[in-house]
Design goal:
The structure holds 5 protein chains of 5 kinds. Chain B is of the alpha+beta class. Chain B has helices at about 1-20, 30-45, 125-140, 170-175, 240-250, 265-270, 300-310, 315-320, 350-360, 375, 380-395, 405-415, 430-440, 445-450, 455-465, 470-490, and strands at about 55-60, 80, 85, 90-95, 95-100, 110-115, 150-155, 160-165, 180-185, 205-210, 215-220, 230-235, 255, 275-290, 325, 365-375, 400-405, 420-425, 490-505, 505-510, 510, 520, 525. Chain B has 3 domains: about 80-190, Periplasmic binding protein-like II (D-Maltodextrin-Binding Protein, domain 2, 3-Layer(aba) Sandwich), CATH 3.40.190; about 205-280 and about 500-525, 3-Layer(aba) Sandwich (D-Maltodextrin-Binding Protein, domain 2), CATH 3.40.190.10; about 285-500, Dipeptide-binding Protein, Domain 3 (Dipeptide-binding Protein, domain 3). Chain B is built from 16 helices and 23 strands. In chain B, the strands form 6 sheets. In chain B, strands 1, 10, 11, 12, 13, 14, 15, 16, 17, 18 and 19 form an 11-stranded mixed β-sheet that branches. Chain B is globular, with a radius of gyration of 25 Å. In chain B, about 55% of the residues are buried. Chain C has one domain (about 1-20, about 60-265): MetI-like (MetI-like fold, Orthogonal Bundle). Chain C has helices at about 1-5, 10-25, 30, 65-100, 100-115, 120-130, 135-160, 165-170, 175-210, 225-230, 240-265. In chain C, about 70% of the residues lie in helices and about 0% in strands. Chain C is elongated. Chain C has 11 helices and no strands. Chain D is an alpha/beta fold. Chain D has a domain at about 5-225: P-loop containing nucleotide triphosphate hydrolases (Rossmann fold, 3-Layer(aba) Sandwich). In chain D, helix 6 packs parallel to helix 7. Chain D is globular, with a radius of gyration of 21 Å. Classes of the chains: A mainly alpha, B alpha+beta, C mainly alpha, D alpha/beta, E alpha/beta. Chains in contact: A-B, A-C, A-D, A-E, B-C, C-D, C-E, D-E. Chains A and B meet through helix 2, helix 5, helix 7, helix 10 and helix 11 of A and helix 1, helix 5 and helix 12 of B.
Chain lengths: ~325, ~525, ~300, ~325, ~325
């Protein structure tokens, strides 16, 4: 456990430069944004643009002074949870984003769940049926699934499932879990295809490894061999992929939230982008960067839980 | 075995997501959730017992404006009321002011306020309260223009409010009708400032909460007309036009009500569904094509007129709008019939004339930039109109480029003035509203939309008209101004909106007026 | 090598799809019966007939012509982005991997930061700042994606650098440039080709997605994603308007995926382009019982 | 003059564990080795040791594929361990290397012809295209391949042929010394025999000398006149191959005894324990934990390689004392 | 040779074929051998000779696309090929155990050594997990391993030699009747190989176990085996007591093998020319004939059968069969 703790601390420390980079990029985005934010703020609010008003707005936004100073100030603010105020509503950006974060998290969780529910049976069955017609159909389905743009799938689902069918909501998240159904499917479907493919390939690869043969030679039951020996090992690369998937997932939420009017941060962000609502965009980018980095950290940790080789390498074991 | 590993993974992922949720700080308490839970519980339990009626209205824009706005919420929410409203003929109508009269010198307007009206917080509505509001509105950048001729505001009786103007202004009640005379409880008005702490008005519905695109309203039992029928009203902001209609079809919203809420092309989708009532309403909104009048080549009025001639408004309304609209023949909404002269049409389709004008006045290789606001495009087919215009220009060999931008970006672009033509919806009240917003040098929309039109003649006429006490005389000046608008064409009307809106069949007595403000008081659910 | 690719039915299907789509879209000016741009209100929403093979859209434009030209735009831009990415990514990766030290450190830090953001989100934001338009989408996607290539190439170079044949080349007196050019590049390229093929599908999707969101192609440009966006209000009344471009995107992406999948088996047996566990590899390929031998 | 001499060569690797924690791993310690390479001293030298003994690292140091962390490398009397690559041309040509994994040592994207042409181009730039071609054909034949194989790619050759191709690449530039890093290990008996004979033949034909690095004593004995035994990153014994039976180091003797033989009933006197891990070599004599003959001093003091008799050096406290 | 060995494993006419895209491959063709109690039979041959397929056939674990065509595998009187899958599963590990060449890949990298041994034990014996653990530790200790530490180790944490001993402990955990060691010492260093050989021999005698030692290392086979069978291209070409075969090989392949190995060939090596045949494309006659120095017309057309040419020593060679009588005479004199 101590090894784990050490590792965690070390990973967290290596995150520092990355996070600095992330915040810097975020800051620069705002700083390089075309137009004077103060002027934008005024026009957004239908307030007359006069030099006095501009000056006031500038001070309020903290957009005067040299760049490093502004960055330092901004970073201090961010550390205190202050991300500025939204151009459109005048509310604090942090409150706006945090208020919508649970919805996005729910959606992402739903997407992941759908992904696993679809991918695991598909991938396993395809691997066990290797070479049969079923496997080929499975492979093709998976490839087709991965090729359908999620926005298109979402529209199809709305038109042909939600609207004709009673009780399946078209949009929003008011109806409880059932509202989550279609957005999750839209989000998880394409990824499920990727994972089913990957799982199939991994299972096949693992199933022909020596230790499976060794397990058979020792008279273990087939269920034990697949469950205990094949599956877990086939999962390890799957976990590695999760890091990349998180990116797709977070990116996907943007589209899905827009189509299904899901009140999450993704939609907020798109609207902000369209609206050139820079503080909100900035907050969103920062949040996504943080979330992505944290998720990858967690994935890394779980990866280490699954694979003792990586876990032990720095600690007790030998050095490769 | 399979399942064990699987659940391990699912568990890990769940932990991961929870972690991401709790990143930063704990989510603020969510009053909405309680509310929602309440709603859910109550709707779910015993439908037989008619406990709470909830009406959810889908709208295409956010009606929540926030504390810095003149009214905090849009008027359609029925949370606040103004002193004055307009009737069908666009004449002032009493609202919170029971009676409006003019003093002898024609400079002081006397508003007799309705008695027995209380704000949602229990504060009484009286002349002092109204005065505080007027003072705030006058300071407020969004409404300062409406009060620019005001000299003084006085509470002369408990329910008598006098507004003294610098000069006679016959249209003053119209000028301050609806938004510019919105009344809020003095408790929420920032002393000496313009901010509102909360939208505490006098309307049939009280503001309860705003969260996740929804404005939650509760019935005001102490409303001066009596208690409204529906207990809760929710305004749900659904920016996407497709989602809006889908939501109505699926019954997730009970009504779609706002200007441009249903695009004409969506009508076939809703027609023939027995559970849905499709309604139409002529509104004061018109779609204009406006020019950046300082940019060559559209700095030349002839070019502007030429471009206008290329639009076959009849065809446009018939095909693109499926007839839901009226081809524009004047700059002012046909609802203001009185102010429009009898000419057949000032803006008819004349491709030959247009082509001639452009041929004569356009130099080679001049590229026209057409700006489209895509936020509006979700409520009016502006992008299609732009593409139509592009094609027509193309036929004459004029190159053009369409830039499609959402609200914020669009406004920025307008500010920079890097465009030639754009389209916008605009809702006016009375003719002065139109002319002093669009034609007066340096005035509101003329400036903020980047038209930058300036004409001394127009300025003089507008000043003159607004002070002209004689209605007939005033009308004539407006005819003159319409001639001038046609001649200079800083902006030309395209069509007048006929808004399609809809409700589920169980929503009764639900109607939108020409200001697309739904009257929620009489509405009930069956 | 090609033989193996052609034997696999699915990759062959992919290849055929890609070739067909390329041929058809590149020949759009010949094949399309109409100009895809001009609005003809009187012809709006016509159903398929001799004049309009697939009918017309709400602005009276030939849907078939728009589909063809749309594919052209999608492919053109996807390929351009890919070209930019490769031109930046591969050399950077090669240099960083081979030289190590400062260059490498710098690249890795940049990569860490860029990769700390989800791809689409960063592209979205960059486009947001540059303003909508296909060119800007192209720039945004390139900015976001080149890092991945640089990183993969760097990783490959690091692993190849230790390979005996590179040591042997040094022993054979070949200098650094020769080693990069003759030994690293040819071995780095095949997996990169696989990656690029698979990535092309992703780029098509990204461009379509950004256009769908309204950040990419501007009206009246017939880009598939933008076409779907425009067709949304006709989803119920005229579903073809949405189904056709949607299917076109799916088919194109499918083609690239099928082909990439097949290519991977042929060109990247080491699996550089497949996500797999890091250091200690359990998946050492088991010796095949009967490997093919050359005759002696 | 000694052809190649390493003096107190040492190599350590820095293993980075994050950016503040580093660990140093010693792969080779203070190894001094001279390769005289004449008939008397041993035209072919065998470097024997078990996996992890540091012999592969030593090979890379001697062939200057890696720079030593400490110590000097003299090539024909000239110190070359710090010379830049450009000044190593003569050394590089004279010292060629054949790797254990022949398949990995051949660029999979180059045909045989290109693989063989590469060193020719670099070292004999004056060769005309025709000369080069002839030379390639000739060498191909000499290693038992045919000129028709020129166009084939490595994966089209069998394992044995790949090895022949790797050998051809090494000898095509007329090197003085060819270092064979486990070049015959793990092969089938017949193929191993073929290659050993090929080495012998080429040695005669081209005047090539070999440094055969292997854990396979029989092969070393077959090819080499001199045997150098490594253990835990150090040379523990260095003696003529025909005097192996008189070896003095307990490890060498254990190696010899571990070798299964047909004659006599086999009762291997196996060494207890495991070879030490390179990250933690024992103090004192690195072999002492497994040594059947260890005495008290062995745990404390590290024995140095000392001259026992002419051409026989051993690093053992007991050596030469009996 | 004394006949004290009770035959434990008798293999008769065993054939295993692979159906590949390149055609039928007879990986094991008409294999006959038997192993007595406490006896060690070494099967030697070069890679691709069909040794491993033979080993896997005994456990009925021939990988796809191969299958056992015919034959009999009698393990103490039971024909394994007649058992149903469940019975066969009981035999694996319990009666017949297998040790592989690469001990790293024998173990699942993400599970501890101990869990592997325990699961083998509990798969066959109704034991509590504590009992199984004790048993496993005991077995590890028997192999000279630090029981507790190696029990808890992951495969990659042990050195090659230790791991191979752990694999041996796992294979022997249920006291199998026959242990099949498939190249079990091949990739190890000499000193470690000596360790493993030592433990193998020790168990052979102590546990009344039989050993089928499969290797391409002639020296190791010579050191450990009582009898030896030489395989070439899927067939057994020679078999007999190890000393006889190594001293006086009857098959030209065997003698050529010995002449290729520095340990057995005092002078210059005389390795076999050419490379092993492609099993998918065998000549109709003796598979060794293309490389055989003594090859004759008949060798290219007719497959020689395995015949006893010398007491207990059999070979499949036309040349020697022709000289059979001479050999007998030689033996008499």
């Amino acid at each position: 456990m101590q090894v784990m703790l050490k590792y965690l601390i070390r990973r967290l420390l290596t995150l520092v430069p990355v996070l600095l980079g992330v915040t810097f990029i975020t800051f620069i985005l705002m700083d390089l944004a075309p137009g004077d934010p103060a002027e934008i703020l005024l026009t957004r609010r239908d307030i007359e643009v006069t030099p006095e008003n501009l000056q006031l707005a500038r001070e309020a936004l903290g957009v005067d002074g040299p760049l490093p100073l502004r960055y330092a100030n901004w970073l201090l603010d961010v550390l205190q949870g202050n991300l500025g105020t939204s151009f459109t509503t005048g509310e604090p950006v942090s409150a706006e984003i945090l208020g919508r974060l649970p919805a996005t998290a729910e959606l992402a969780a739903g997407g992941l769940l759908v992904m696993f529910l679809l991918a695991f049976p598909l991938g396993t069955v395809a691997a066990l049926l290797r070479g049969t017609v079923g496997d080929h159909i499975g492979r093709l389905t998976a490839l087709v699934g991965a090729s359908i743009p999620s926005f298109y799938l979402g529209l199809l689902l709305i038109t042909y499932i939600a609207v004709p069918m009673e009780g399946i909501p078209v949009m929003g998240k008011d109806e409880g879990l059932i509202s989550l159904l279609l957005p999750s499917v839209t989000l998880g479907f394409g990824l499920a295809a990727t994972y089913a493919r990957l799982l199939r390939a991994n299972l096949l690869e693992v199933l022909q490894l020596d230790y499976i043969r060794s397990a058979r030679s020792r008279g273990l039951r087939e269920a034990v061999i697949i469950g205990r020996h094949a599956f877990r090992n086939a999962l390890i690369p799957v976990v590695t992929l999760l890091g990349i998937t998180m990116g797709h997932l977070l990116g996907g939420t943007v589209v899905v939230e827009r189509i299904f009017a899901w009140p999450g941060v993704g939609r907020l962000a798109v609207e902000a982008i369209f609206d050139r609502n820079y503080p909100v965009i900035q907050g969103y980018v920062l949040l996504m960067g943080l979330a992505f980095v944290c998720m990858n950290l967690v994935i890394d940790l779980s990866y280490r839980l699954l694979d003792p080789r990586v876990r032990m390498e720095e600690g007790e074991g030998k050095v490769s | 075995m399979l399942s064990r590993s699987f659940f391990k993974i699912v568990f890990l992922l769940t932990v991961l997501l929870l972690l991401s949720v709790t990143v930063g700080c704990e989510p603020a308490e969510d009053p909405l959730e309680d509310l929602e839970e309440d709603l859910e519980e109550e709707t779910a339990e015993e439908p037989a017992e008619k406990t709470e009626q909830i009406l959810t209205i889908g709208v295409g824009r956010d009606f929540y404006y926030g504390s810095e706005d003149r009214t905090y919420l849009h008027g359609s929410t029925n949370v606040w009321e103004g002193l004055v409203y307009l009737d069908e003929n666009l004449e002032p109508e009493s609202w919170l002011a029971e009676d409006i009269s003019l003093s002898q010198d024609e400079k002081t307007w006397i508003f007799q306020l309705r008695e027995g009206v209380v704000f949602h917080d229990g504060a009484a509505f009286n002349a002092e309260a109204a005065k505080a509001n007027i003072i705030r509105l006058r300071k407020h950048p969004q409404t300062a223009d409406n009060y620019k001729y005001m000299e003084e505001v006085r509470a002369t009786g408990t329910h008598t409010l006098e507004i003294e103007l610098k000069k006679p202004l016959p249209a003053f009640p119209v000028l301050i009708s609806y938004f510019p005379s919105a009344m809020f409880s003095p408790e929420v008005i920032e002393t000496g400032g313009t901010e509102l702490a909360a939208p505490v008005g006098t309307g049939p519905y009280k503001f309860a909460d705003y969260s996740q695109d929804r404005i939650y309203l509760e019935a005001n039992p102490d409303y001066w007309k009596g208690e409204p029928n529906i207990d809760q009203v929710v305004f749900h902001h659904i920016p996407d036009e497709g989602t809006r209609v889908a939501a109505l079809r699926a019954g997730e919203v009970d009504a779609l009500a706002d200007v441009g809420i249903i695009l004409p092309e969506q009508v076939p989708e809703l027609e023939g569904i027995p559970e849905i009532n499709l309604l139409t309403q002529e509104v004061l909104t018109s779609i204009y094509m406006f020019f950046q009048t300082e940019n060559a080549p559209v700095d030349n009025p002839a070019v502007r007129r030429g471009i206008s001639k290329l639009l076959d408004r009849e065809e446009l309304v018939n095909s693109l709008l499926d007839g839901y609209g009226e081809p524009a023949r004047a700059v002012i909404s046909p609802l203001a019939e009185y102010w429009i002269d009898d000419q057949e049409s000032r803006y008819d389709y004349d491709p030959e004339e247009g082509s001639r004008l452009l041929d004569e006045n356009l130099e080679e290789n001049e590229k026209i930039t057409i700006l489209v606001n895509s936020s509006w495009a979700a409520r009016w087919p502006l992008s299609s109109i732009a593409q139509y215009l592009q094609t027509e220009l193309d036929k004459l060999g004029v190159e053009s480029e369409i830039k499609s931008l959402e609200m914020g970006a669009y406004n920025e672009e307008l500010g920079k003035g890097d465009f030639h033509v754009s389209f916008c919806p605009w809702t006016g009240q009375d003719p002065d509203d139109f002319f002093s917003s669009w034609l007066l040098s340096g005035s509101g929309f003329n400036q903020s939309r980047g038209v930058n039109f300036s004409s001394e003649e127009a300025d003089e006429l507008i000043q003159e008209a607004v002070q002209e006490m004689d209605r007939e005389e005033r009308r004539k000046i407006y005819f003159q101004l319409q001639d001038l608008a046609e001649e200079k064409a800083p902006l030309v009307p395209v069509y007048h909106d006929l808004t399609v809106y809809a409700t589920r069949d169980y929503v009764k007595d639900f109607q939108m007026d020409f200001n697309f403000r739904p009257d929620l008081f009489p509405a009930y659910l069956e | 090598m090609t033989g193996r690719l052609l034997r696999d039915h699915l990759s062959l299907t992919g290849l055929v799809i890609i070739i067909l789509i390329f041929a058809v879209t590149m020949a759009a000016p010949v094949l399309a019966p109409h100009d895809p741009l001009p609005v003809e209100l009187s012809e709006r929403l016509r159903s398929a007939d001799d004049q309009y093979p697939l009918g017309t859209d709400p602005l009276g434009r030939c849907l078939y012509s728009r589909l063809l030209y749309g594919g052209r735009i999608t492919l053109q831009y996807s390929l351009s982005v890919l070209a930019i990415i490769l031109l930046i990514g591969i050399p950077t990766g090669l240099l960083a991997g081979y030289l190590g030290g400062m260059v490498d450190g710098l690249l890795m830090r940049v990569a860490d930061v860029v990769l700390a953001f989800p791809n689409l989100i960063l592209a979205l934001v960059v486009t947001g700042f540059l303003g909508p338009g296909l060119i800007n989408v192209m720039i945004a996607l390139a900015v976001v994606s080149w890092v991945q290539y640089a990183r993969v190439v760097r990783g490959m170079v690091l692993s190849l650098k230790q390979k005996e044949f590179v040591l042997a080349a040094r022993s054979a007196g070949t200098g650094p440039l020769g080693i990069i050019w003759h030994h690293l590049v040819p071995n780095v390229l095949p997996p990169v080709v696989v990656m690029a093929t698979l990535n092309l599908g992703g780029l098509v999707l990204s461009i379509a997605t950004l256009s769908f969101l309204g950040l990419g192609a501007q009206p009246p440009v017939p880009e598939w994603g933008a076409m779907i966006n425009e067709a949304r209000n006709y989803m119920v009344s005229t579903p073809m308007l949405m189904l056709l471009p949607g299917t076109a995107i799916a088919l194109t992406v499918l083609g690239f995926n099928l082909l990439g999948d097949g290519l991977r088996d042929v060109l990247d047996p080491q699996g550089f382009t497949r996500p797999r566990q890091q250091s200690a590899g359990s998946s050492k390929p088991s010796p095949r019982l009967f490997s093919r031998r050359g005759s002696q | 003059m000694t052809f190649l001499r390493g003096e107190r060569l040492a190599k350590s690797y820095i293993i980075s564990r994050g950016w503040w924690q580093k660990e140093e791993i010693q792969a080779v310690h203070d190894v001094s080795l001279d390769l005289d390479l004449d008939i008397e001293a041993g035209k072919n030298v065998g470097l024997v040791g078990e996996s992890g003994s540091g012999k592969s690292t030593l090979v890379r140091l001697l062939s200057r594929l890696e720079r030593p962390s400490r110590g000097c490398l003299h090539y024909r009397g000239k110190e070359i361990s710090t010379l830049p690559e450009k000044q190593l041309t003569s050394f590089r040509r004279q010292v060629q290397i054949i790797f254990q994994d022949a398949a990995a040592s051949l660029n999979p994207r180059h045909p045989a012809e290109k693989i063989l042409a590469e060193p020719l181009r670099n070292y004999f730039p004056a060769f005309s295209r025709k000369e080069r071609r002839d030379k390639i054909d000739q060498v191909l034949q000499q290693v038992g391949l045919s000129p028709e194989d020129r166009k084939r790619y490595p994966h089209e050759f069998s394992g044995g042929q790949q090895r022949r191709l790797a050998i051809a690449r090494a000898v095509i530039v007329n090197p003085f010394l060819v270092i064979c890093d486990e070049a015959t290990s793990g092969l089938d008996v017949s193929l191993q025999g073929q290659l050993l004979n090929l080495f012998l033949d080429l040695g005669e034909k081209f005047g090539v000398h070999y440094l055969l690095v292997s854990h396979d004593l029989p092969a070393v004995r077959y090819l080499c006149q001199r045997v150098v035994v490594m253990y835990a990153g150090r040379i523990v014994e260095d003696l003529p191959a025909n005097r192996l039976d008189a070896s003095l180091h307990p490890y060498t003797r254990a190696l010899l005894k571990s070798e299964p033989r047909l004659e006599g009933s086999f009762s291997p006197q196996f060494l207890p324990g495991e070879p030490p891990d390179s990250s933690a070599y024992p103090a004192g004599c690195p072999f002492h934990p497994r040594c059947p003959e260890r005495i008290e001093i062995c745990a404390r003091e590290q024995p140095f390689l000392k001259e026992i008799s002419a051409r026989h050096r051993a690093a053992c406290h007991l050596a030469g004392k009996q | 040779m004394d006949n004290v060995h009770k035959q434990v494993l008798e293999v008769k006419n065993l054939s295993a074929n692979f159906y590949t895209s390149r055609g039928l491959i007879r990986a094991a063709d008409n294999i006959n051998f038997n192993v007595g109690q406490s006896e060690c039979l070494a099967i030697i041959g070069e890679s691709g000779a069909g040794k491993s397929v033979t080993a896997l056939s005994l456990l009925r674990l021939v990988p796809h696309p191969g299958r056992i065509e015919e034959g009999e595998i009698n393990l103490e009187g039971r024909d394994l090929l007649q058992l149903n899958p469940k019975e066969m599963r009981r035999v694996r590990g319990e009666d017949l155990a297998l040790v592989f060449q690469d001990s790293l890949s024998t173990f699942n990298p993400v599970r501890t050594i101990g869990s592997h041994i325990c699961e083998t034990i509990t798969a066959h014996r109704k034991l509590s997990s504590a009992e199984a653990r004790d048993m496993a530790r005991c077995k590890l200790a028997e192999m000279g391993l630090p029981a507790e530490r190696s029990f808890r180790s992951f495969p990659f944490q042990l050195s090659g030699g230790m791991r191979q001993r752990a694999a041996l402990a796992m294979a022997m955990s249920l006291h199998p009747r026959v242990l099949i060691a498939d190249e079990a010492t091949t990739s190890l260093d000499v000193t470690l190989q000596a360790q493993i050989l030592h433990y193998l021999k020790k168990h052979l005698q102590e546990c009344c176990m039989s050993l089928l030692f499969i290797t391409h290392d002639l020296a190791a086979a010579a050191a450990v085996a009582d009898r030896v069978a030489v395989m070439y291209a899927g067939r057994i070409v020679e078999s007999g007591p190890v000393r006889e075969v190594f001293r006086q090989p009857l098959h030209p392949y065997t003698s050529a093998l010995l002449r290729s190995h520095p340990s057995f060939c005092p002078g210059r090596l005389e390795p076999i020319n050419g490379s092993p045949p492609d099993l998918a494309d065998l000549s109709p006659g003796c598979a060794f004939s293309p490389r055989c120095l003594k090859g004759r017309e008949i060798c290219r057309n007719k497959v020689p059968s395995l015949q006893e040419l010398w007491p207990e020593q059999q070979a499949a060679c036309h040349f020697h069969q022709a000289r059979k009588n001479d050999l007998r005479e030689a033996a008499v004199t």
